Amino acid sequence: MKLSFLKVAWGQLTLSVPSVVKENLEGKTVVVTGANIGLGFEAAKHFARMGAGKIIIACRSKKKGDEAVAKIKVDTGNKNVELYLLDLASFASVKAFAERFTKENDRLDILVENAAVATSKFELTEDGWETSLQVNDISPSLLALRLLPLMVETAKTHRTTPRIVVVSSETHYWTSFAKEVIDSPNPLRLLGAEKESAKHMKTRYEDTKLLNVFFVRALNERLVHKSVVVNAPNPGFCYSGLRRNFSGIVVTPLVWLMEVILARTTEEGSRQLVFAAIGNEGKDEMRGAYISMSEVNEPSDFVISEEGRVAQDKLWDNLIDELIKIDPKVRDIVREYLK
Question: Fewer Cβ close by (within 10 Å): the C or N end of the chain?
Answer without folding.
Answer: C
